[in-house]
Amino acid sequence: MKWKKIALVMALGIFLSVPASAQFGKNNVRYNQLDKFYESYRFDVWHNLDTNDPVQKEYLEMVVANLENARDWMSGQEVYGHTIERRIPIWLYKTHTDMESSNIVGGFLPEGVGAFAESEKRRMVLKADFSKPLGRAIGVHELAHEFQFDIRNPGIIDFVVNMKNQRPGWFYEGGAEFIAGLYEPHTRGDIRRDDQKITSSDRHFVPTWEALNRGQVNPYSGGAMAFEFLEEKFNAGVTFQVAGFKQSKIGLGELIYDLTEGELGNPDIDSEKFNQAIIRFWMDKYGDEINNRPKPYERNDNFEGRPVMPWNHSAPMSSPMLAPDGTQLAAFTVLKYGVALVRYEIPKEKVYVSKEEREKLGNGNKAFGPNGSGKLTNLTPQLPPVPWEYLISQGFETWSFNGFDASWSPDGSKIAFFARINRGHALVVVDAKTGKISRKIELPLDQAFSPSFSPDGNWVYFSAAENTARNIWAVYIGDPDTVQVQKITDNKNFATAPSVSPNGTKIVYIDQDDDFQHLFIHYVEEGRQEQLTFGSFNDGWPSWSDDGSTIVYASDEANGIWNLYTLDLATRTISQWTEFPLGAKAPVFARGTLDVVYYVSPGEDTQNGGVYDKIFEAKLKKPIRQYVVQNTGPAGEFVFNPSRDLFQFELDGNQLLNPTEPPEKWSCGGGGISFGASTYWGMFGQSFLGCSNLLETKQHVGLLAFNGNFRFIDYSYQNREKRTGWRWGAHQYQMPYYYLFYDIVERYPNQFLLNNTWFKETALDLTLDYPRNKFNRLELFSRLRHRSFSVFGYKVGELSEADIKADPNFTDADLQMYRFLKTSNGSNWTFGAAYVRDTVLSSSNTWGPFHGNAFRAQVEFAPPIGEEFQSYASVNVAARTYRHLGLNSLFAGRIELMANSRANGDFMLLCGPERGRGCEYGSIAGNQIGYASAELRFPIPGTYLLYQGVRGFLFADAALAKFTDENFPAQEIKTYGVGIQYVIPFIGWPAQSIWTRDNGKWRPSFYVTLPW
C-alpha cells in the first residue's frame, strides 16, 4: 500500500501546479503553421506552401511525385516486396525554422536534420529549403523508414519476446540510405560518399561488426557500407535489409550466415570472417586509390603542397578566408566550447632558428613553432544563446551546400558571417582584430549564408531563400542606421556561394543546372547572368584572383571527387590542378598571385589519430589537364530511373483551386483504468485520457482518481496553433494537504498541523503565453478558485484558536499554519502576469545546467468582489545564474523572493532537497520568503559507483521566512556544507548525499533529486 501511495502521489505531482517561481523553461515559437492540405493517391500532405506561386507549387509537385513513384518501386519484389496499406501523413514545411517550431520538434532542431520519420506515430516530416536533388534523396530515405516500420511493426508480446533481436540504429539508417541510394542517389559525393572514402583510408576505420553494433560508426554512411559490401560481393544487400525486418525472430548474424552460405560465418558468434571480408572489400575499393594518389602535403609535377594549420591545433577547419594583406587566415573550427571563428598567421614555409638565436629567445620551445608564435585568436568566444544560438558553418552546424561561410572586408577591419538569431540567420559583422560585434542584421529571408563583401566594404552579398526559391541578395551595411536589402538574381533555382570580383562589376556564384551545380556569372551593371561551366558534374566554392582574370574553384568533374580547378575568363580555359583521393574544397588565391592557393582537404592527424579537414597551401606548377569550355546544354539528370522518369505527375488542379481545411485527425490514448470497492476505502478508481490532433496543436488531457474521500479530477485543453498559445482547464482536488509536499525520502514535512489537514479546491483557469523568442516570454493568466481546509476532520473555521494555543502538542509553527489556512479558506478571482527569461545551457558534463541565466517575475492580483471573494496581491521573483569554470565545473547561484498582502493559500516550505538543505524537512514555512543559495559544482576524478561517475559540490543556503500579519519573528536558515551527486545503481534515480556543519559536527542528509 505504501508504494501504491508513493506512485499515486508522484503521478499527481505532474498535474498539480508547481510553484510559480519554478516555472522557467525555453519557448517553442510558432512562426507558421501547416494550414494547407493536399491529398495524393496514397499520401496526406499537410504543408504551408503557396501553390499560387509557381516555384512553391513545383516543389510540392516534386515531393508528391517523388514519394508516389518511390513507393511503387519499394513495394516491388526487387526491393521490400511489401505493400503499405495505409495512407502516410506527410508534414512539409517551407523552411527549417517552420519545421523546428512545430509541436512535434518542440523548439530546437539542428539544421543538419533534413527530415525524419516517426516509428510510433507513423508520419514523415520534410522541409522545402533544400535543392531539388537533395530534397528527393532525403525524402526517399525517410520513405524507406516507413517501409521498415510497417514491416517490423511488432505487437507487444512479440516485442518483449524478441527483445534480444531488436535491430540496431545502423540497420535502420544505413539500410534506408542504401535502399534510397539505389533509387535516388546523392548527386554530390560530399553528402555520404566522401565519408566512406575517409573511412576506407585506414583499415582501422572500416566498420567492423563490433563497431557497427556498438554505435562507433556513422549509422548513415558507415551503416550503408555494410549493405553495399553484401550487395556487391554476395548480391545480398537488399535481401539482408528486407529479411532483417521480415524475419525479426532471427538474429542479424544468423541472417548473414544464411545469405552468404556460411562464407562470412555468423558474426554474432564469431565476427572474424565478416570483419576481414568487409575491410578487404573497402580497402580494395578505395584503399589503393587513396594510398597511390597524390596527397595535399606532397610535391610533384603539378603542385607543391604543405599544411598551413594553426600551431598545435588538432581540430577540423573550414571556409578559409585570406586577410587583405595576405598574412593571416580566418576559418571556422571546433574549440573547447563548440564551433568558433578564429584567425591566425599563415605559417612561414621554412623556419630555421639557429641554436644561438634560440638561446637568445630564452624559450626554446617557442622557436620551434611554425612562425615563432603560432597564436590562434578566437573571434567568437561568446557562449550561446547571447549574442547568438550558433554560428552558421556548413558541415559543422548545417548541411554542406556551397560557398564560404565568412568574408573579410577589403580594408581588413571587419569580418562578416551569419549566425542563428531569433527566427533565422542574421548577418553579424565583427572587428577582425578583437571580435567585437559592430552590426547584427536580422533579414526578412530564410536560411541566409555565404557572405561576400563588395570592394568598397559597404555591401555584403549572400545566398538566401524567399518562398523556397534561393537567390543571390545584397544588404547595405555602410550606414549603421539603415538596412537596405536587394535581390540580385531571380532565377528561381538554387543560387549559392556568391563571390564579388575585385572591381565590383561581376559576381560569380553557383546555381542549379538540372541535377548539378555549376558556375554562373552575374554582370552587375547589365543585370544579366551567364553560365560558365557545363556538364554532368558539380562545381563549388568559387573565388577571384586579385586581378580579376581567373576564378579558382572546386569541381567533382573527375571521378566525382572535389579537386582544385581554375577558369581563365579571357580564354575560358579550365585547368585541373589536383587529383586528391579525398578531395579539396574552398580554394582561395594568395594575394597578388595566380599560382598559390589555400584550400581545405581531409588530412590525417598523425599525433592524435583520425582524418579531418585541414587547411593546406598549394603552389601550382603544371595542370593535370586543360580544356576550353563548351556549351553542351542542360546537364540533365544524375541517373536515369525508369520508375521516376517515365511517368509524368501533375498535382490535382481541382484541389488547388478548391482547397479544403486540413483535417484534424484526432487520436486518443489513456491508461491506468481501474475501478473497484473495498470495505476500508469504499469505492476507488483511476483513469488517464489524452486526445490530440495529428499536428499536436490541440490537446485534451484528463485525469480521474478517487479512493475513499480522496478525489482528483483534472481536465485541460491546450491550443498551440499560433504563436500565442492558450490553455484553459478545470479541476477539483480533495486530498491530504501533505500530498503537495510529499518527498520520496522524508515522506512528510515536519508540520504536525499540515500533515493532519485535508484541502479541497475547485477551480477554473485560463492561461495565455506569448513567446517573444526562444528565451523570453510573457504570460497572462486568470483563475477562479475556491479553497477549503479541514483539520483533524473539522472545518478549519470551526476550530478555536484558543484550543490550538492550549494544546501542548501544537507548536508556534502549527498556530501560524492554522491562522494561514483559516484566512486562506474561501474564494478569489485572480488576474496575473509573468515575465520569463531563460538562457541556460545544459551539458552532460555537468549533469544539468552549464552556463546562463534564468529569471521569472510574477505579479498576481485578486480584486474584492462582494463578501464571498477575498482580495490579495502577491509578487514572486526567482533568478538563477550558472557560470561555467571549464568544461566540467561551474558556479551556481539562486535567489527567490515571495511576498503576499494576505494569506491566499500559497506558501513555501523550506528545508529539504529544493531549499535549505540539512535542516529537518519542511520545518520552516511562510508566505513572505527570501531565499538564496550558492554552489560550486565539480567532478571528483577517479570516483565511480558501478561505472557511474560521481560529482561533488560545496554549498551555502540562507533564508528568512514568515507569514503575513504574524507577530512571530521571522524564521532564519543558514546552512553550509559539502555533498556528492550520483545515480543510485539499478534504480537509476539521481541522488545527493550531503554533510552540513551543525554545532561543530558534520550532519549527514540524503535526497533523491536533480541539481537545480
TrEMBL record:
Keyword Signal annotated: yes
PANTHER family associated with the record: PROTEIN TOLB, PROTEIN TOLB HOMOLOG
InterPro entries: 6-blade_b-propeller_TolB-like, WD40
Family classification: Belongs to the TolB family.
Protein name according to UniProt: Bacterial surface antigen (D15) domain-containing protein
Taxonomic lineage: Bacteria, Candidatus Yanofskyibacteriota
Signal peptide: 1-22
Keywords: Signal
